[in-house]
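User: Second chain of the day. Same drill as before.
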Amino acid sequence: MPARRVLVDTGPLVALFDARDRHHARVVEQWRRITTPVETVLPVLTETLYLLDFSRTAVEAVFDLVETGAMKVLPMDRVDLVRVRELMMKYSDVPMDFADACLVRAAERELVVHVFTVDRRGFTVFAPKHVRRLKLLPASLD
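Assistant: Same format as last time:
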């Protein structure tokens, strides 16, 4: 059986490297339980680096994840962007931002069902083509 693939959203990456984040402890615990490299998309990295407020230590840590292979950055092309636009229009009332739409599109394209996110409002609503609902990690944020 192939290893479970996990896409990671902005929130967990910020919480992982910012001990002041309210989700930090839960995210660190969940991160340690993931046994396969996580994957993400470039817009998530953009948001993450911005929200980490140019902390040199945090920026280095994020890049280290990519350079060591612990986190893979999935490509996006023109065809993907057509679908990203469709998703953003479909969920404009939620709303769905560009990074979330790219993550959902990557999940569809790669047939990934697990998303590591703290965004329960959006990701409990978004329905990719390949599954009714994505499976969210951590299972609980209590």
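Residues 78-90 form the longest helix (13 residues).

User: Great, on to the next one.
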